[in-house]
Design goal:
This protein is an alpha+beta fold. The protein folds into three domains: 108 residues, Butyryl-Coa Dehydrogenase, subunit A, domain 1 (Orthogonal Bundle), CATH 1.10.540.10; 102 residues, Butyryl-CoA Dehydrogenase, subunit A, domain 2; 149 residues, Butyryl-CoA Dehydrogenase, subunit A, domain 3, CATH 1.20.140. Helices cover 52% and strands 17% of the residues. The strands form two sheets. Strands 1, 2, 3, 4, 5, 6, 7 and 8 form an eight-stranded mixed sheet that branches. β9 and β10 form a beta hairpin. It is globular, with a radius of gyration of 21 Å.
Length: 376
């Protein structure tokens, strides 16, 4: 994935994922699941586990058999069909946070439980009023004795929060502002969730901690280790989400092209109209530019966490979001009135890209982040 050509093994992975999702995620089935209000399909997630996809994005030393490229390949194919499963939130962002917490005693058992499907930990870091510094959070932890803390605050939005078994919650120590990362089981007393769906139909929640009592058993990382874990989760999660967005816009171009070749006006296929062909060509160009930025993001993940990597991934997020909204917006225009209906698929591709732009900071926010880290 980091080069223009996939390896033989990556080609097999890509083909296998595409065949599976095209069979499992037929449009009518997705609509049925949303209409029924289904939260999470354990059978589908179990198939992900059996196929090795949950472990595919993790390095061999963590019990996986792939890495960032493999995670991107899977996320891209899931993006093509607007999958509802929390792959990026659990198998990428949370897994990377846990993997980087080398001093956490339960690190290996939790990773094994995640990759075997027995645990669904979700990274809970975003807050409504976060500003420039990703490490400046309002969630607070105050000391309540040796090795004991009281956690208070709210994380919002937390994608996949309603299906989580545990949350990886970032907080700062009241007196010293030291960064902490806690594992908080969803059943913990004092923890509450307000559940909702994002514009594209995925589950999310506001997670509120009201004097949640924690001990050293819950502490995943602190200080620089916690900051690194947060960086790993955000950076890897953002690139995986960008891969999903590329898959979504790629499929939107295909759907629009198929429609133009079927729809007729004045007895002529509208695919022959030069103005429409130019618009379709622009959509192709934007999709390939987004793919180039995705490759840039994958290369950046090979670097240590720091300003340069953060700036590069902000550029990836901004450019892919801009391209995605353009491509899917044009796809709706090319469909005419049917593209605006809830029953037809193409508008839902646009909604997925709106959600991609919104979650984790908009394109405008990431342009500012890129400029702040590159202009001195």
């Amino acid at each position: 994935m980091r080069s223009l050509r996939l390896t033989a093994e990556q080609n097999l992975l890509q083909d296998g994922v595409r065949r599976f999702v095209e069979q499992e995620y037929r449009w009518d089935e997705r609509k049925r699941r949303l209409a029924a209000g289904l939260r999470h399909d354990p059978e589908v997630w179990a198939k992900f586990v059996d196929l090795g996809w949950i472990a595919a994005g993790m390095p061999a030393e963590a019990g996986g058999f792939g890495g960032t490229d493999e995670a991107a390949i899977i996320a891209e194919q899931l993006g093509r069909v607007l999958a509802l499963e929390p792959y990026e939130a659990v198998a990428v962002a949370a897994a990377r946070a846990i993997h980087s917490a080398h001093d956490y005693a339960e690190r290996e058992p939790l990773l094994e439980a995640l990759m075997s499907g027995r645990a669904l930990p979700v990274f809970a870091h975003t807050e409504r009023f976060m500003r420039d510094d990703r490490h400046e959070v309002a969630m607070s932890a105050r000391q309540a004795g040796e090795g004991r803390w009281m956690l208070s605050g709210c994380k919002s939005p937390v994608l996949a929060g309603p299906v989580a078994t545990d949350f990886l919650v970032s907080a700062v120590l009241d007196d010293s502002r030291e960064m902490l990362l806690f594992r908080v089981p969803v059943t913990t007393s004092g923890l509450s969730l307000r559940e909702y769906r994002t514009i594209d139909g995925r589950l999310a929640a506001d997670v509120t901690a009201n004097d949640v009592r924690l001990t050293s058993v819950n502490l995943v990382a602190r200080g620089e280790s916690a900051r690194t874990a947060i960086d790993e989760a955000i950076d890897h999660g953002t690139v995986a989400a960008a891969a999903g967005a590329v898959g979504t816009m790629e499929r939107a171009v295909e759907i629009a092209s198929e429609y133009l070749n079927v729809r007729k006006q004045f007895g002529v296929r509208i695919a022959t109209f030069q103005a429409l062909r130019h618009r379709l060509a622009d959509m192709h160009i934007e999709t390939e530019m987004a793919r180039s930025m995705l490759l840039t993001g994958l290369l950046a993940l090979a670097e240590p966490a720091g300003d340069h990597r953060t700036a590069t991934i902000s550029a990836v997020k901004a450019r892919v979001a801009q391209a995605g909204l353009f491509v899917t917006g044009q796809a709706i225009h090319l469909h005419g009135a049917i593209g605006m209906t809830e029953e037809y698929v193409i508008g839902h591709h646009y909604k997925r890209l709106i959600a991609f732009d919104w979650l984790g900071g908009s394109a405008g926010f990431h342009v500012e982040q890129y400029a702040r880290r590159n202009i001195r």
